[in-house]
Amino acid sequence: MFVIKQFFLYIFLSFFLFGCINQPKIKRCTDCHNQVSFDNPHKQIDCTKCHQGNSKTFSKEEAHQNLLKHPNSWLIYQVCLECHKLEVDRFKNSFHYTYRKMISNTLKAFGISKNLNLQELKTFNYEKPFDKTSLVVDFLRRRCLLCHVDYEGEDYKNTRRGKGCLACHFNLSNHSIVKPTINNCLSCHYSSYIGWDYLGYSPHNWYEDYRSPFVEGKPPERPYGIEAYQLVESIHHKNGLVCTDCHKKEEVMFGRNKIKCLDCHQNLSKKTHNQKTLSKYRCEVCHANFVNLDGKLSCSLEFNPSLDDWYDLTVQESSEVESFFDLLNKSPKLAKPLMKDKLTGKLEEGLWLCGLGERTFEKLVLGKDLYGKICVLRKKKITIYDESLELEGSLEKCISPHSIGKGNLFNSGGL
Questions:
Q1: Which residues share a beta bridge with 67?
Q2: Residue 31 lies in a domain
Q3: Most buried of 55, 336, 396, 415 (most Cβ within 10 A)?
Q4: DSSP per residue over 326-353, as a string?
Q5: DSSP character for 52?
Q6: What's the pLDDT at 288?
Q7: CA-to-CA distance for 97 and 88, rounded, in angstroms?
Q8: Would you call 402 exposed, middle or buried from its count of C-beta atoms within 10 A (0-12, 13-18, 19+)?
Q9: Residue pLDDT, tens place only, 125-171
Q10: Is 313 part of a structural domain of the chain?
Q11: Angle, to 10 degrees, between the axis of helix 100-109 and the axis of helix 132-139?
Q12: Is 77 helix (H, G, I), strand (E, B) or coil?
C-alpha cells in the first residue's frame, strides 16, 4: 500500500512540476524595453506610474492594455510630486512654467491689455470668426508656443523632449531621468533665440535661396529644423561650462537668484570696468560676439494653401508645415491644412504659414533697460492675418546674448 501511495505521489509531482516548467513566465516592461535605464533613485518607479498598462503580465496585449504612450504633463507632475513636492510646487511660479511675461508682452504688442499665463491662455475661450484678441491667441497657441514644458516639441531629431518635469530631466534615447544637460536646454533654446549663440550657431533664413547647398548630392541634416552658420562659440562654452553651471535650480525652477556676470567676474580692470562704465552699460553690449535677430515675421492663417505660392518656404522650423507640404507634393488629396493646438494637443483647421525678413547675425541694436543701462535690444515687427483681419505688432526687449567673448566690439571703453 505504501509503495502504491508513493507511486501516485510521484506521478502527481511529475505532472505538477512539468506544468510549472512549461507555464509562461511573467514578463516585465524591461524584458522587452531593455533600452530603459533608470538610475538607482528612480528604479523603484514602476512603468505604470506614468504609462499605465500592466507591468507584470504574460503577454504584450495584456501589458499594453490602456497604455499611455505619451503621458500628459499633469500625470508626470503627480508622479514627481510624491518625492519632489518642494520643487514641483515652486516650479509652478517660475517663468519656465507660467510664460506670463512673454505671453502678456506679445498681446501688448498688438494692443491687447491682458495679463495671462500659460494655464490661463489654455482655458481662454475664443470663437470663430476671429476678433482681434482671438486671432492673436490662436497664433500663440498653434504657431508660437513650441517650447513650453507641457508640449513635446517639434518632430526634429534634437527638439523632441518629455513633458512636464521630463522636459528638462529626461533622456529620450534611453528613457533615463537625468540632471539637465545642454541637450535638454537646446531642445527649446535653439534658432534665433538665446542658446544656439552659446555654441556659436546662427540660423539660416527659411527661404530656399538662403539655405545650405547640397553636400555630396544630399541636403545637410537639420536636427533643429533649420541649417546654421558656425560662428564663434562663447568663451564660456569653449572653457567647458554648460548651462547649469551658471543657471542653477533657484533661477530656472524657482525664478529667483538670477545669475549676473559680476557674480563670477569680480577681479576686473578698473581702467575699463570702473563704476561709471558698469553703471552705464550691460556687459553683453561690449562682450557679445554676434546677436541672432529676426527683424520681421509675417504669418497668415491658410485654409487652402498652394504649393506654388509657398514653394520657397516649405521649411519654416515647423515640422507640421514641412509634413503638410511634403504630403501636398506627393498626395495632394490626402494633405489637410491642420495644426495642433500646443496647449491642448487638439488638431484644428487652418495652417499658420510664415515668412521671415531681416534675419541676421551682423546687426547690433542698442537701447536702454528699465534701470537706464544701455542694453542689446531685440526689435521685431510681426504681421498676422486671416481672411478678414490683418494685425501688426511690434516687440521690443533687452536681451542677453550668450555669444560672449573678450570684448572686441567696443574695446575703446565707450560708445
A1: 52
A2: no
A3: 55
A4: HHHHH-GGG---EEE-TTT--EEE-EEE
A5: B
A6: 95
A7: 10
A8: buried
A9: 888 889 999 999 999 999 999 999 999 999 999 999 999 999 999 98
A10: yes
A11: 140
A12: helix
